[in-house]
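Researcher: Good morning. I'm working through a list of sequences from a screen, and I'd like to move beyond sequence-only analysis. For each chain I'm collecting a predicted structure so we can compare shapes side by side. This is the next one on the list. No need for commentary yet; just the structure.
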Amino acid sequence: MPRVPRPSAGLPTRQAVLDFIARSPQAVGKREIAKAFGLSAQDKIALKALLKEMQDAGELDAGPGRTVHRGGGLPKVTVVRVVDLTDSGPVAVPDRWEAASPPPRLRVIETRRRGAFGIGDRLLARIEEQGGGYAAFPMKALAKAEEFVLGILRKEALGWRLVPVDKKARVDFVVSDPGEAAAGDLVLAEPSGRPPRQFARVVEVLGDPFAPRAFSLIAIHAKGIPHAFADETLAEAERVATQGLGEREDLRHLPFLTIDPADARDHDDAVWAAPDPERDGHHRAIVAIADVSFYVRPHSALDREARRRGNSVYFPDRVVPMLPETLSADVCSLVEGKPRAVLACHLEIDPQGKVLSQRFTRAVITCVTNIAYEEAQASIDAGAGEWLPVLQPLWAAWGALSKARDHREPLALDLPERRVVLDARGQIAEIAVREHLPAHRLIEDYMIAANVAAAKALEAKKAPCMYRDHEPPSREKLVALRDYLETLGHNFAMGQVIKPATFNRVLARVKDSDHHDQVQEQVLRTQTQAYYSPDNHGHFGLALGSYAHFTSPIRRYADLVVHRSLVEAWRLGEGGLAPDEAAILGRTADHVSMTERRAMEAERDTIDRYVAAFLGTRVGEVLPTRISGVAKFGFFAKVEGLGGDGLVPVSTLGDERFVYNEDTRILEGMSSGTRYETGQRLDLRLVEANPITGALRFELPGSEASQRPRGDRVRGRPYAGPRPGQSRVPRGIKRGRR
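Model: Good morning. Structure tokens for this chain:
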């Protein structure tokens, strides 16, 4: 605390108080002022009145914990919330701001690179005035506050209530102002207060929660995914879309094609291959990627919005693109029969699949077709079809690439991918597991080869690179896997060097057993989460020393950064990586890693909602399931072939007491010895399917609980609305039960 000369009159002047507060490095209240000026007990009473007068006059404002600070300013220590990510770092505003003027924006001074702050993060920070503005120095990260709550409005006898759609929510909100919303509407509300007195004010009406396209809309708002482009960004997209392609290598004579899902919304990668005429058994291949960096320049409105979004988000009924559709679905999409600007990766491949050389050029290509995986595979299998002459050289070169893959022995997980098929009205026609064909593996291997080539090309130029890192599993996770495998009678040696092939051998041992699926899931849980970084830590799962994402710049900002670095390093023209971009590459990597996790959660939650809606018509039926997780309060099960996690509460298992063993992760009856463990197959009765939260609930067939009246459960009415005389908000929504 700074020393202050004690005024002769005892009580300090107003200016002396303001000067003391300005010089103090910590928060100041009446006690600190009294101590600094050596005030007597009588003077302290007068000081309290003086501080009140100064607050009334606007010279001082009250801060947290009975502190005071300069009027119109900020406390020395306060809670701030990150609201924007700029090239110079995060920007925050005070978490609470009651003045009539707009809240001041604070520059957050980050002291860490990994795990950087993202939008919505709340921080306890020390505040300093700098250059006419404010800087916030983080002291502690706080729990993220929900700025808005997504829920369904209910009308009750005592007023309005908001039922959150989040399945983890445990409380409803009293609605102080429903606005123009009606009972049963899906709304966005601003919360206030603390439990148990929490209120909410409706700020936006989103419509009928059971309407087509509502499930993805819920995820978009629940996860805070930016989904509307500003007029400035749209206008810029229209403007850049009309520019010429510039000076490029002309590859339009080569028969490039794209191989994508039949329902692909964009095409950002095309491939071509042919035997090397100069060396027997060798191949030449070109992976051509949409040249997004030519259209989206650093610091432009398009660039700022693309960075903010981080990636595109794909739902069964829509896509939230990283770039406006003028670019993502048209000018940058490698559509059939139209010349398109690309960044071309030229590869020379030897008979064993080793890439002997790579080079990058800006080129122009024209795809001869956009073909689906199924069509390409059928043509190869039948040895016939219009595009067979183009496909056969691709398959031949892939034969070499697959040898290199087999030699590396990457992690060989075969995890089912659910696919929701909608009809013309937007209703669910089918939920199925997506078939994985050799054609999928072919494109994967070409893309991996190009991604590795991009990373190595940048390393050779000592240029910045946005790596896709996947680190080896931690010892703690390996120990957990070992303990789990021991319960199945399998050994897992901890002293060995852990490679992807180590896990492949484990999976091979259980391939034909009933435990294969659950062991595969446990191996997956053992892996670390991949992330983006300017530092190279290798890709464990792919067994690669250097790996970057290069092949999807339409939908991933990380790939756009790699393109820019290649353009700059190889001197390919305008749109290269700017020096200030390179300086904040770590911050960008952390941000796009966060947006990727956000997109994955949103896509998974939406699929769960569709599954719940699809199963809603089968409430009361006994379905084949497999236990996906066990806890002391019960176990979770997935419907075979469909997925969707449903809880079987331990309270529904009968009067017998069940004990949970944390080591074996088994729930066992004390008297009967009945056991429930991960991977176990059971026939369970579906008693609740909630399409709004995506939650399911099961019970054992014939249990007392399953015989009880179940009230008004959700019965698969995602789009049709309520039955006559029935509320649109089913009771099962209330607490988001799983």
